[in-house]
Amino acid sequence: MKIHEYQGKQIFAKYGIPVPKGYPAFSTEEAETCAKRLIDETGIPVVVVKAQIHAGGRGKGGGVKVVKDGPKKAREIADSLLGMQLVTHQTGPGGQKVRRLYIEQGLDIARELYLGMVVDREKKRIAIMASTEGGVEIEKVAAETPEKILTEHLDPALGLGGWQARKLAYGLEIGKGSPKPKETVKQFADVVSRLGKLFEKEDCSLLEINPLVVTKGGDVIALDSKINFDSNAEGRHAEWKELEDKDEEDAVELEAKEAGLSYINLDGDIGCLVNGAGLAMSTMDIIKHFGGEPANFLDVGGGATKEQVHKAFKIILHSDDVKGIFVNIFGGIMKCDVIAEGVVAAAKEIGLSVPCVVRLEGTNVELGKKILSESGLKIVPASTMADGAQKIVGLVRGS
Amino acid sequence: MSILINKNTRVIIQGITGSAGSFHAKQCVAYGTQVVAGCTPGRGGETFEAEGPGGKKVTIPVFDTMADAVRQTGGDASCIFVPALGAADSILEAADAGCRLVICITEGIPVVDMIRARRALEGKNVRLVGPNCPGVITPGECKIGIMPGHIHRPGKIGVVSRSGTLTYEAVGQLTALGIGQSTCVGIGGDPVNGTDFIDVLKMFNEDAGTEGVIMIGEIGGNAEERAAEYIKAHFKKPVAGFIAGTTAPPGKRMGHAGAIISGGKGTAKDKIAALTAAGVKVAPTPSDMGATLKSML
User: Fold this and answer.
1) Which of 3.40.50.261, 3.10.150.10, 3.30.420.40, 2.60.120.10 would CATH assign to domain B147-294?
2) Which of A182, A332, B50, B176 is the most exposed place for a label (fewest CB within 10 A)?
3) Percent above pLDDT 70 for chain A
4) Of B267, B189, B111, whose CA–CA distance to A118 is shortest?
């Protein structure tokens, strides 16, 4: 689950990680009021108006503007940003509509650094990464100059050691150029150790500050925030409901999620309904192998009910791009007759206007096949995955 | 021969009174698995009734703690069906009680919990399989998990996989070709798990009853690449492979928490290349896993 920059910064503040002063704004009026309030409170005439979308690269995409001419100008900028389709390297060509802004005080920046935390799957530890190359795409740094990224691993029994934070601080030469180098090192080490606690306590799956800045005065401040939460921990974080921004998510994917289905929209024209993530992925692969294009990833899960299958069918047929459906079920926990009943009920209700190939295998397979063949619907049975994929590709390409 | 489990394995089901736990405990008993105890806090002293092969009645005692369950029944393997937020705790309870094998079926455990659990298991003589996996089966002897038992046949091919249903697909193909299995291990679809490909491959390498292996991976992480290095250097038996997710878009989590291409890393293409370079024959489609292995025997 993703949250906005300003929400991430509110969490940073709770953990004592220094952030610039700022206020979220949802309208041009609010933007002006916030800018005025910020200038009054900080005595700094410069504010930054930042578009809030769940994607990186906002600065490069034109979503972050520095305003030096007062609250009225901030309002003008806000007017140009709100409602625009912001395109970044992470949004795709269509961009993402800007609905929220964050108005923040301006800072005198001396250096821009990168700090990030991820789960290192190989070491089975949380990794904290720091680099002198802040403000740019870290993937690029990792690919071109990996030696510029310093990494430490967090021992879950001990937490992040002070020595590790200092190792990063001196490795980055964080005190260099600062008017108070010792204090700068101390502040940086403090930020790093607080982040370590935050990552664990708040159940993050990814955390980035890009850039983390050192001001001309030598202070360390988080100028940006990116936090992704581990959805598996939703059950112990009631506060996440408040942080969720449904406008940022694909409406159909959200609908599927609420029905307990794992669904991802793709560009092709053959809808897939499969049980199990691995089988669902490889069903997409085999459709492609035989010359077709999958329209979606859809895993109905191990113990799906008739109602869920019904819902899954409806979600697939949601899109006019879908020219055929391939149902591929290997019943382990799932009974084939339950799947068959769901398919028949959904097809009858919605009206099956596109070809549908069904491959059933596993528990109660004969009963499942009987339900399908007696349904009176035009459902093409398949004996194997390859047979099913070839049949649906043939039917879609032929029609 | 087999790895991890056999007809002598004594199994305790953690979460036996829940809906998934009770359903699958019955399925395991019906397959012939020796389920000797159940564990659900607050339900100690109750019994759980099931039917073994041929309809033979089996009465299983339920305990409040794993320590009691192990002490009184001599169980040596646990199978966990506890809900996600309590499952990591259950793993540690089983390990503390002295189980040598802990198989965690539960899906959706927070990754931070798994990182802590892995740290706590360091240095202990216990093997964790999963979480978010179908379990382990040695056909004809012992089934611990949620896989459909009837598709398996005793034989000499080992199967190791990150995906549940894709494992059933491979097993179904093998059985249809008349090829039985020694042991099938689901290592699970989570980013931080207990047992990885290399652990299982090492066991298959040393098992006289295993003559070849099907290894099924998917996008995300680099476990397949590391396994490829191991196979190249040490593995003595033929391996057929398959990697799911050639068509998966980057940055999207494909059902499994661990199945995500991030920062250009963990693509199916890289994994297939690494496996091929290690001498693994990678099946062109998931329908060819069994046939690919057969061609190598």
Assistant:
1) 3.40.50.261
2) A182
3) 98
4) B111
- Tell me whether strands B34-39 and B57-63 are parallel, antiparallel or unpaired: parallel
Helix %, strand %, coil % of chain B (to 5): 35, 25, 40
Q: Which amino acid is at A370?
A: K
Q: State whether residue A237 sits within 8 Å of chain B by CB.
A: no
What is the pTM for the complete model shown? 0.93
- At A264, is the secondary structure helix, strand, or coil? strand
Q: What span, in angstroms and rounded, lies between the C-alpha atoms of A9 and A370?
A: 58
The tokens describing A331, both together, are 């019943």
Task: List the single residue in B112, B148, B256 with the smallest CB-CB distance to A332.
Answer: B148
Cα–Cα distance measured from residue B183 to residue B163, given in angstroms and rounded to the nearest whole number:
15
Nearest CA to CA, how far is A245 from chain B (Å)? 18
Q: Is A1 on the interface with B (CB under 8 A)?
A: no
For residues A71 and A45, is the Cβ–Cβ distance under 8 A? Answer: no
Cβ–Cβ contact A343 with B under 8 A = no
Is the pLDDT reported for residue A109 higher than 70?
Answer: yes
The domains found in chain A, sorted by start residue, are 1-20+108-248 (3.30.470.20), 21-106 (3.30.1490.20), 250-398 (3.40.50.261)
Q: Which of B19, B184, B247 to mutate to test the interface with A (most CBs of A within 10 A)?
A: B247
The pairing of strands A379-382 and A356-362 is: parallel
What six digits make up the tokens of A166?
């200092």
Separation CA A165–CA B294 (nearest Å): 54
**Distance to chain B for A287, nearest Cα, Å:** 9
CB nearest to B255's CB, from A156, A262, A361: A262
Which of A126, A274, A286 is closest, CB to CB, to B115? A126
- Asked if B116's CB is within 8 angstroms of A277's CB, the reply is no
Which class in CATH covers the domain with range B10-129?
Answer: alpha beta
Which residues of chain A make contact with B285, given a CB cutoff of 8 A?
Answer: 282, 285-286, 289, 385-386, 389
In this complex, do A278 and B192 lie within 8 Å of one another by their Cβ atoms? Answer: no
Q: Does A44 touch chain B (CB under 8 A)?
A: no
Nearest CA in chain A to B188: A278
Question: What are the tens digits of pLDDT across the range B37-51?
Answer: 999 999 999 999 999
Query: Which pLDDT score is estimated for A327?
Result: 93
pLDDT, one tens digit per residue, over B178-209 is 999 999 999 999 999 999 999 999 999 999 99
Rounded distance between C-alpha atoms, residue A142 and residue A207, angstroms? 16
The closest of B190, B227, B76 to B142, measured between CA atoms, is B76
Q: What are phi and psi of A158, to 5 degrees?
A: -110, -20
Quick one: average pLDDT of A303-316? 82
Q: Nearest chain B Cα to A141, which residue?
A: B263
Q: One fold for both B10-129 and B147-294?
A: yes
Contact with chain B for residue A116, Cβ under 8 A: no
Could you tell me which chain A residue has the CA closest to the CA of B222? Answer: A122
